[in-house]
Design brief:
This protein is α+β, with helices and mostly antiparallel strands and 357 residues long. The protein is built from 14 helices and 10 strands.
């Protein structure tokens, strides 16, 4: 299938069912979702895959995924950067702040779809510990160190993409807290400080390594995460569109490498929707079905010069990104706008949700 043009209210459930099944088939009995059978698992992509399962209506499997995270969470609230079959598989002993924060996004996403309040209560201690770990790494300037080493010492630098992801996770964590009647004004303040750093303190990022501005995620993640007002978001995407987007193919992972990737293209779709550019979001998504396999999975990406699919991998998180973008384009679930708009609950909204319970 060379093109799939989606519009609101027309989610292609039958077409995407094999994609959901692909993630389901890769999930281990423990709930762990590796990149692919025999591959490793990282907390961020594990959560992404769980969100794909929730969109597909596989609630029990999604809950197993989050309960696996509960079981694997360390005392300080973090997770190692990589696991394999339930064992730590991380030679550097690294724990990444945006990996840890993303659990809040996944839990809130699941709740928006399922409205299972008991699940939200069950996940609250895990989310609270995770955010405590992440915010222990926030500097006085608002940015958040990207990781800690095996001894728990911060790796003292910050990533635009990672901090943007944390910004969205803080929104979700605050909404969980508000819904459960456990408001966390300190999280709201931390989010404000992080947003300020992302918008106006570029010197706080990429201090100890070469700038990562050549990566497309640094380009569109501040838009995807709701860091920028819509007018600024549209201008940001327009400014580097020609550098990153290959017409008819997708979004490059890196500006100076001839390689388009499916997951980044799906995330660009979400960023375009956040910026109010629905037409281009539909168009970019339509290009991606050429990278689909008969079993509903998707290749990681395509090398434009050598004209080959590379690497020889079909990641679960790429499949999940396809589902997230389709949901956002069609409004299929109650979580469809999570990455397309900022929606911080106030105290009154939290009280209304608790009364429904």
């Amino acid at each position: 299938m060379s093109g799939l043009y989606l519009s609101r209210g027309l989610y292609p459930e039958e077409f995407l069912r094999p994609t959901v099944q692909f993630i389901l088939d890769c999930q281990r009995p423990s709930g762990e979702i590796p990149w692919f059978p025999g591959g490793h698992t990282d907390p961020w992509d594990h959560v992404e895959a769980a969100m794909g399962l929730a969109i597909g209506g596989e609630y029990a499997a999604a809950r197993r995924a989050f309960r696996w995270l509960q079981q694997m969470q360390l005392e300080d609230g973090s997770w190692w950067a990589s696991y394999r079959d339930g064992e730590v598989d991380c030679k550097e002993g690294r724990r990444e702040s945006n990996f840890v924060a993303y659990v809040a996004t996944g839990v809130w996403h699941y709740h928006l779809i399922s409205q299972e309040r008991d699940f939200l209560r069950d996940m609250w201690p895990m989310v609270e510990r995770a955010m405590a770990f992440v915010l222990s790494l926030q500097t006085e300037h608002g940015d958040i160190h990207w990781a800690v080493d095996v001894a728990g010492e911060p790796k003292r630098d910050a990533l635009v993409t990672g901090c943007s992801s944390i910004y969205k996770s803080l929104e979700c964590a605050c909404n969980i807290a508000q819904t459960l009647g456990q408001p966390r004004p300190d999280w709201l303040l931390a989010r404000e400080q992080l947003g300020l750093a992302l918008r106006s303190r570029p010197e706080r990022f990429d201090r100890t390594w070469e700038s990562k501005a050549r990566y497309s995620m640094d380009w569109f993640y501040p838009v995807l995460a709701g860091v920028l007002p819509q007018a600024e978001a549209r201008a940001r995407l327009k400014a580097r569109w020609e550098e990153f987007v290959e017409n008819g193919q997708g979004c490059r992972c890196v500006a100076d490498q001839p390689w388009v990737t499916v997951a980044e293209s799906c995330e660009l779709v979400l960023a375009l929707l956040a910026a109010g550019d629905h037409a281009r979001a539909v168009k970019v998504y339509s290009w991606l079905q050429q990278w689909r396999l008969p079993d509903g999975s998707y290749w990681t990406g395509y090398q434009l010069v050598e004209e080959l699919l590379w690497p020889d991998e079909k990641p679960t998180w790429t499949a999940a990104a396809i589902l997230l973008a389709a949901d956002a384009l069609t409004g299929h679930t109650a979580a469809a706008e999570l990455f397309c708009a900022v929606n911080l609950l106030d105290e009154d909204a939290g009280q209304r949700q608790r009364r429904v319970d």
